[in-house]
Each structure stands twice: as C-alpha cells, then as structure tokens.
Amino acid sequence: MKKALFASAAFAALSPLAASAAERTLTISVYAFAQDDFKTLVYDPFEAKCGCKLVVETGNSVERLAKMEANKANPVVDLAAVSMADALAASRAGLIDKIDTAKLTDFAKLYDVAKDPNGDGMSVGYTFYATSIAYRSDKMKIDSWADLLKPEYVGHVAFPNVTTNQGPPALYMLGLALGKDTPDLKGPIEALGEKKDDIVTFYEKSSQLVQLMQQEEIWAAPIGRFSWAGFTKLDVPVAWATPKEGQTGGMNVLVLTKGSKNQDLALQFMDFWLSTDIQTKLAEKLIDSPANSEVKLSEATANNLTYGEETAKSLKLIPSAVALDNRAGWLKTWNEKVGQ
C-alpha cells in the first residue's frame, strides 16, 4: 500500500485509476477502547480490501464532537462512532448526514433496534449492551430493581453515579420499579437520596466493583454487560439479574459527517464493520456485542456479551431526546438529593 501511495508520476500516468484509488484517505473518529484489536481485525483488513489509507482519531465523546463542530465548514472526519444520544446531538447541530442504507449490503441483517436507533435515519447501531444487576446469589435474591433499596440489602449495594453511562439507565429502571417513571428521574433520585448513607458507594468506574464484591463489601451493583466477565472469575457465586421490569442498556452507532468528500468510502467502511464476519470476530474477542443478527457465538462467549434477538428486543433504552433534554436536570437533582 505504501508503494502505491508513493508511486512515481510516470506510474500514475500509466495507471490513473489505480493511483486515484490508492490516494483515497478515510478519516474515522472512534472510542479509544481496544484499538490494537480494532487495527488487527477491522482497520488493516479494510485498507487491504479498499486500497485506501485509514486515518484513525480517538478520544472521548466531548472532545470528538467538539472537533466535528469546529470543522463543520470543512470536515476532517468522514465517519464517527458515538453513542445514540451523541448521534442525536450531532444531528441537531447539523454535523451529520442521512445514511443511504440501500448502499449497506449488511443492513438487513441488523437487529431492528440497531437499524435506525433515533428514528431519523442519521445513524446505524453497531453494538449494544444490556444493563442489569450483578449480585451475590448466596446472599440475596433480585426479582425487581426496587429490591436494591430493601432494608436488608441496601447496605451492601453500589450504585452508578448519575454522571456515568450506567447511571441514568439504572435510575430509569429503578423509577419503573418504584412507579415513578418520569423523564426527570426525580422519583428514583429522591429514593436513592433517602438511602444515600446506607449505600456503600456511588461508583464512577465499574472496574472497582469486582474487588468490592470479592471482599464482600458489596453484594449487588447495576453494571453494563461488558463488565460482566470480571465477575464470572470471582470465587464467590455471582448472578446476572433478570428483574421483572426488564433490562436497560445502551447502544453505540456509526454516523456520516455532513459535507464529507468521502461518503461513498465511509459507507463501504460502515458496511464492512457491520458485516457478519467482522461482527463475529469482534464478538469472539469480547470487544463488542454484535448488532448483526447472523452472528453465531459459543455459549461461553455469548454469556459474556449482550447477545440474541430476544435480548435485543427486550432492552428498554432511554430515548436519546429524553437523555439530551434532561441531562442538566438529572445532575442538578442528583447534586441536591444525593450529593457530589
């Protein structure tokens, strides 16, 4: 590929189509997570297939969206991987384009929940995850999200801070269980506030929970399925709850930058990422739960991911508009009732 990129002028004159293809560059903006594996499984194979150069930019969502906004008049990013809510924010800001799904050969293979997550045609889901409760099955029984606040259990619970990805979804489900289902999440936040002195910690990093459970400081905590593998390695009995109210979760999506000069190439890359082969490889490495319904996994692998049509249909996701329109209010109420 490097030889093609730096081909001589004489060769270019003889082979204009090859030179033109080799000079194409696609710039993508993604999460920093598992980039070594993504390079091996996704980026390098796509470069080999398209005869193009892939430039990968990483960072947190705030930084990456800010860069897209700053370069709105002359985009430098062609495709981005973001959350559902961030995709809607980008759409509202005029930063992304509608996706021509007719050009995605693997689009029909996606679970319905991933085909148009925000209902505006501006994003396609590539992975999702369930959020439920990991708990010590020898110490307690979880039939409802409200069980976390039972007097006999609450002193052994860790709950995600509202500023984390798991915070609002867990609050949403707690609100459903308490019969206080409003977008402002005031009911569940107030209920937590009343028990704040009993709860072990309002965690910000799920990585700390495995040790807390091993040490028996906690018996239960709402977590994303992507964190589940660590709990399965403990030498104490831990179960994944299936509360009567259901499971919540989140989804990451792919978007096309408005004004990008490489949208056709970006669509090719999107289709490659959504393919059964690539989605299978990412799932087998426990990197992403597959949005492609044709992915077949072993039971051991599936148990560490959010997998299967039934699970996909059952997830109660917070609508992106609700998240965007209420974030500031959630934080204000949290700080008032629970504390920083």
From TrEMBL:
Keyword entries, A-Z: Periplasm, Signal
Residue stretches in coiled coil: none
Matches recorded under InterPro entries: SBP
Annotated signal sequence range: 1-21
SUPFAM superfamilies, A to Z: Periplasmic binding protein-like II (SSF53850)
Protein name (database record): ABC transporter substrate-binding protein
Natural source organism: Rhizobium aouanii
